[in-house]
Write a structure and sequence with these properties.
Chain lengths: 62, 464
């Protein structure tokens, strides 16, 4: 087993992804890079009062 | 037979009501058409002839007794196979859920049944409404009715393809990043993603809770407005459902566009993306037609599409992974390659990334709302390209992302794909019409005025 594959398996294990085959581990590695690109597209300089969009509402039935 | 296959919902309904068309004969004719031709298009994952004929016989008996439930009474309709139909598996086009028998109807299914709809079957999708077109699943992907070598769009692929080839006059799809409007665009039909909260999602396999919408798909604008009127309405079992009145969406269909203000979002297809010239021409021709009909056209700019797409992706990935985590941990090999590849990035989204994306969503919702203030509706591209060859994985991947639909899943605005003619290859072209929240009525009004001024809806593919 190469160091890289060993490292990938260990990282996948942290996510509970213990059953990934070698090709699926390669997908897992690509997914990490893809996620980083996606996250880079989101600004992080919000004011503390900038609330997120919500779906949650307090129940009117309580 | 072709004449029955391409009846609109409204035309069929009128004939049924006047007892000129038997719901049983109509249903049998359409089921027979799909029996004859579906090996070419893979529209159905499962036909439900027993269910359909039972619904059709009941409709016929009721109509004979003088009871008319409304415009869907006796009308065949297909369901994307992530929507529950009691007693029939909801597979999500996935091996993971191949035996997932639905124990009740989705709320939308219930509403269709109460309106007298005839459910003819469960339709192809991309795996879990995200992974497709895929050739490594238990069922093949749907193919485009205009040319079976081409992609029909997705993820409501069977709904779009089946309408194009006349297997049913109405279908339901779902839309998280454009999955009603993409197949509508690729298949030359009409697909509406109504305002977030307008239609219940209870009993529909989720992909991303805060972005998912159920939407009507039809061949004409009028049919679409009728169908939305049937499935819309508050549902206390859906946390995202909006407690708002359901208007008559057909009320303004004949009012024309004289005096309406229409904003054109050219930046999405000219600046942010360089759309295929035939797509651009189709939109610009449509805008000119609407101007000739008396609409006041102006350009609006909601900012770069990438801002919307980025927030949409982080939210979608985070929410989808929370749904799929268990199956990815226990049955990763039972996913198709594409679904696994598209869902796995969600593992790396931290809570803080998701929260920032949700905060950005609110910023963009306000920004879009501000840019819509001076207009009644907006027009922009749906897909930046016509359909690509379905077996060209690279082209499908490239075209998949070149779209302007996801911004409206993020903002929640109603958005509808409407045909704008055909490319030189014979494949359909389309545009989107976007409305203000809960103002689907004006979107339909504009779409109907344009539809009446063109003859795209009268054209259908040859099935051979």
């Amino acid at each position: 087993m190469t160091d890289n594959l060993h490292h990938l398996k260990a990282e996948a294990q942290r996510f509970g992804l213990t059953q990934l085959s070698d090709p699926q581990l390669a997908q897992f590695a690509n997914a990490k890079a893809a996620a980083e690109r996606m996250i880079d597209g989101i600004p992080r300089d919000f004011h503390a009062y900038d609330e997120p969009a919500h779906v949650y509402r307090a129940s009117e039935e309580a | 037979m072709t004449e029955l296959a391409y009846l609109t919902l409204a035309e069929a309904s009128e004939r049924i009501r006047n007892k000129q068309l038997s719901p049983v004969d109509y249903t049998q004719a359409l089921l027979g058409r799909s029996d004859d031709h579906d090996t070419k298009f893979n529209v159905f994952l499962r036909q439900t002839p027993e269910v359909a004929l039972q619904h059709a016989r009941q409709a016929e008996a009721e109509l004979q007794a003088g009871k008319w439930r409304g415009p869907l009474h006796g009308i065949p309709i297909g369901l994307k196979d992530i929507i529950d139909l009691d007693g029939i598996p909801t597979t999500g086009h996935s091996k993971i859920l191949a035996d997932n028998l639905a124990s009740s109807d989705a709320v939308v299914t219930q509403r269709l049944k109460e309106a007298g709809g005839v459910i003819v079957g469960k339709l192809s999708t991309h795996e879990f409404a995200i992974g497709g077109p895929s050739f490594d699943l238990p069922w093949p992907p749907a193919r485009n009715g205009w040319n079976r070598d081409y992609f029909p769009g997705g993820s409501s692929s069977g709904s779009g393809a089946g309408l194009a080839v006349g297997f049913f006059p109405a279908a339901l799809g779902t839309d998280t990043g454009g999955s009603v409007r993409n197949p509508a665009s690729m298949c030359g039909i009409v697909g509406m993603k109504a305002t977030y909260g307008r239609v219940s999602r209870r009993g529909v396999l989720p992909l991303s809770y805060s972005l998912d919408h159920v939407g009507p798909m039809t061949r004409t604008v009028t049919d679409n407005a009728i169908l939305l009127g049937i499935i819309a309405g508050y549902d206390p079992a859906d946390p995202g459902s909006a407690r708002v009145e359901v208007p008559d969406f057909t009320a303004d269909l004949g009012r024309g566009v004289k005096g309406l203000k229409i904003g054109v979002i050219r930046r999405f297809y000219r600046q942010d993306y360089d759309a295929d010239p035939e797509i651009t021409k189709g939109i610009e021709d449509a805008v000119q037609i609407l101007a000739d009909l008396g609409a006041d056209i102006q350009e609006i700019d909601p900012g770069p599409i990438v801002d919307y797409a980025s927030a949409n992706r982080v939210i979608l990935m985070s929410e989808a992974y929370s749904i799929h985590e268990h199956w990815l941990q226990t049955r990763p090999g039972d996913y198709g390659d594409l679904a696994r590849e598209r869902i796995l990035p969600g593992a790396f989204m931290r809570a803080v990334d998701y929260m920032h994306a949700l905060r950005q969503r609110e910023v963009l919702r306000k920004k879009f709302s501000d840019c819509m203030v001076p207009v009644d509706v907006a027009i922009t591209a749906s897909s930046m390209d016509p359909a690509c060859p379905i077996e060209d994985a690279e082209a499908c991947e490239r075209v998949y992302g070149r779209q302007a639909r996801a911004p409206f899943n993020l903002t929640g605005n109603p958005a509808m794909a409407v045909p704008t003619g055909f490319a030189s290859t014979g494949l359909p072209l389309s545009m989107q019409i976007i409305g203000k929240p809960f103002d689907e009525t004006t979107v339909y009004r504009v779409a109907r005025a344009y539809e009446q001024a063109t003859d795209w809806v009268s054209q259908h593919p040859e099935l051979g």
